[in-house]
Design a protein that fits this description.
- Two copies of one chain form a homodimer.
- By secondary structure, the first copy, chain A, is of the alpha+beta class.
- Chain A folds into four domains: 86 residues, 2-Layer Sandwich (Uridine Diphospho-n-acetylenolpyruvylglucosamine Reductase, domain 2), CATH 3.30.43.10; 119 residues, Uridine Diphospho-n-acetylenolpyruvylglucosamine Reductase, domain 3 (2-Layer Sandwich), CATH 3.30.465.10; 110 residues, Alpha-Beta Plaits; 94 residues, Alpha-Beta Plaits (2-Layer Sandwich).
- Helix content of chain A is 34%, strand content 21%.
- The first copy, chain A, is built from 16 helices and 18 strands.
- In chain A, the strands form four sheets. Chain A has a seven-stranded antiparallel beta sheet with strand order 15-12-14-13-17-18-16, with helices on both faces. In chain A, strands 5-6-10-8-9 form a five-stranded antiparallel beta sheet.
- In chain A, a hairpin with a 4-residue loop joins β5 and β6.
- In chain A, α1 packs antiparallel against α3.
- Chains A and B meet through β9, α7, β11, α8 and α10 of A and β9, α7, β11, α8 and α10 of B.
Chain lengths: 462, 462
């Protein structure tokens, strides 16, 4: 429990109405998308970097754990207060401070919702590519903390590739600036990219300078039904091998299709064992040419049906197929273990066949979909935890899945981060010495280990 | 001086023929492109990460400064052994280990010359965009250390944007791996991007995993002559404002044109006060359209002449104009002070007019050219240091130039780094607290301060 005088200090900083200690308020802020729950001692809403700084100073001087929270939509427990303490909510710091059409940058506060920024810049003919599935409710601060990805990252890269500069409150409460407003900057170490993806363990971001692109002239969306998953996996590899980089290359496997068959706006017959949603964007002439080339390349791979959107509505209908996936998975079983492994693109067929083998070996339904274009597969092990011994079974299959991804020169996380969910597996991918250097950075930035403690690393001792 | 038994240990690691202690050999390895010179105690050529590791262990246990060196083409003294010690030459680690056309990556040793990799990947229809002016002799290890840029970075980004993973020997001699071979990876802190641009002060890179792109189908090069520098500067701003991102947007000012007028393959009359070299690349249809739009946009800005290359030879002729610049500058005065400031693109007109004002105020010729598309201006103050009091005058004008760039929300270095040349000015751009965190990283990675000591930061004490 946090002492009363500290609660009073917090109230002095942000005002009475922005500090919550009631059980109901604490519970509301105890969850994230992992559906795990840890109670914070106190919930504080901040409105400025200066407030954040004052709050962090209190936390630091009393060694109270503190973690920043946006929408709580993370999949690895990044915003779970596993050691209690202060949950610092930044959703009220939600101003778009500037959209600079001359220099193609935007400056935002961390609480801005991703799709809101996208809408605003698109009105001006600009484009912010990263598009996590939660973009309609997740915040840019959270995107920075986890280095969010999304379907468009195949062509456009991840959040990190769009962050030019940050304003950050450090563990000691200092407000520092990193990077700047220019595309090039080699002035000392790149702290900006270090903070991106550090899951709130090194500092609390209070302002973000983002790079924007000109909005592509047009896009073309295609939904292709395959007779086999192997055909779809080969299509991904062949498209990349042909040196075409589509905007998105999403795939759904047979189990995923089974989940959405009844509600899909595009009919998906029983024979359809895999779906690819392919989108290309750019100048009108080019996307027509690219779409035609893609069709040529994948033609021999066992295609049942192809739908090419010719209007925005038709394109939305195709994307609706994809959007139906996540909410439908629980038809299979009530409990979902969702991981986002990555393998080099060409190894997708091998990884998919490994996953099929594991599903059979353990007798567990594994539903796979995701961003095949960059090798990022969302693996969903669907189980009923009420069954005796199920958690142990899930742990075993997960470990095998991660091992297989790493063995294929892949990664255990493409865009969700480590948080608490993958902490036990960090050492599988990153050797001890390298983890040691990460820990040294953590100690150097946060010697009292107050910033989002209990994440990424198994213990905080270097 | 390094003890004889240490020299013997070094010989035991790499062989007698790879350790040099003669004065002539030490002098050969005492320079870089800054033309400053500091004698190393010993020069060692390494052939593998394991050798590098053994050598670094010796340096660390005896607190001997050690720095890695490629071609020594850096502009800020990154490879100058300012505290003596070991210069570790990596030019013999120059193998391209793999070009993976399925996954669009390459794996190389640090001694590979940049343009050699470019040629090899282009043979396979692929593309490695970063193109520092020294690309025909600089090495990829050096590019990683300094986060090299180049003309194409306007559209394609800098070296950092293409580095997916590294193998690094740390100050303690550990060999660690960072990142991986996939585009997405959020597994712990991003040490990869931290090492890129750290100027050899955090570790010695022994292997680099690079991202490649499909090679653009075609390109179109244009040379546009302007009546005024202001017209050219406005052209840059207007092109970006129109949401066109060309591959390159290079500019030469009147003083630069004066230097090359006699030897330029494209005639440049006296009335021509500024030149823009604009290149667009991509699909054939698109570049024709983009080139036409660019011409429309810049037409009202006082154009004397436009040359559009229609063959590779004609394109090369245009680029030859740009290549003649650097070697010609000393016509103005024997001593060159070359800086690479950056400003937000739209502020180029303001920065250029500031530079003209400073040239007049101090009575010093300032020759400006560079990558206008990303606001990166190569400012060359041309003087004769034999004149009494000239160095002090140069110091003053440099300080004013850096101040102006920072005041315009720019940066004191876009692609050359800090090294020793800009050490005194680091604090002008980066606040003390932020520098403090950079120093903490340095201490955490290199507690004995053996790795390229005396660079970036004014003193090594945090």
């Amino acid at each position: 429990m946090i002492e009363k005088k500290i609660i009073k200090s917090l109230r002095d900083i942000v005002g009475k109405d922005s500090v919550y200690t009631e059980n109901s308020d604490r519970i509301t802020h105890s969850y994230d998308a992992t559906q795990k729950s840890y109670l914070p001692d106190v919930v504080v809403y901040a409105k400025s970097a200066e407030q954040v700084s004052e709050i962090v100073k209190i936390a630091n001087s009393h060694s109270i754990p503190i973690l920043a929270r946006g929408a709580g939509s993370g999949f690895t427990g990044g915003t779970l207060p596993v050691q209690g303490g202060i949950v610092l909510v930044l959703t009220q710091m939600n101003r778009i401070l500037c959209i600079d059409t001359d220099n193609l940058i935007a400056v935002v506060e961390p609480g801005v919702v991703t799709s809101e920024l996208q809408r605003e810049v698109e009105k001006l003919g600009l484009f912010y590519p990263p598009d996590p599935a939660s973009k309609d409710f997740c915040t840019l601060g959270g995107n920075v903390a986890e280095c969010a990805g999304g379907p468009r990252c195949v062509k456009y890269g991840v959040t990190k590739d769009y962050i030019l500069g940050l304003r950050v409150v450090t563990a000691s409460g200092e407000i520092i600036r990193t990077g700047g407003r220019t595309l090039k900057n080699v002035v000392g170490y790149d702290l900006t990219k270090l903070f991106v993806g550090s899951e709130g363990t090194l500092g609390i971001v209070t302002e973000i300078v983002l790079k924007l692109l000109p909005k592509p002239e047009a896009k073309k969306t295609m939904l292709v039904q395959f007779e086999t998953i192997d055909g779809a996996a080969r299509a991904v590899a062949d498209i990349v091998r042909a040196k075409i980089v589509p905007t998105t290359l999403e795939f759904l496997d047979a189990a995923t299709i089974g989940c959405i068959r009844d509600i899909s706006p595009v009919p998906l017959p029983d024979e359809c064992k895999a779906v690819l949603i392919i989108e290309v964007d750019g100048d009108r002439e080019v996307i027509e040419k690219q779409a035609a080339r893609i069709m040529d390349i994948i033609q021999p791979l066992g295609i049942l049906d192809t739908r090419i959107a010719s209007t925005t509505e038709e394109s939305e209908e195709i994307w609706d197929v994809r959007r139906k996936v996540s909410p439908s998975l629980r038809k299979v079983n009530p409990d979902k273990f969702n991981e986002d492994i990555v393998v080099p693109r060409s190894k997708i067929p091998e990884m998919i066949s490994t996953l099929e083998g594991l599903s059979e070996k353990y007798g567990l339904p594994i539903v796979n979909f995701g961003h095949a274009g960059d090798g990022n597969i969302h693996v969903n092990v669907m189980v009923d935890l009420a069954e005796v011994g199920m958690q142990e079974k899930v742990d075993k299959v997960m470990e095998e899945i991660f091992h297989s991804a790493v063995a294929l020169e892949g990664s255990i996380s493409g865009e969700h981060g480590i948080g608490i969910s993958k902490m036990d597996y960090l050492g599988m991918e990153v050797d001890n010495a390298t983890v040691g250097y990460m820990r040294r950075i953590k100690s150097a930035f946060d010697p009292n280990n107050i910033l989002n403690p209990g994440k990424i690393f198994q213990s905080t001792e270097p």
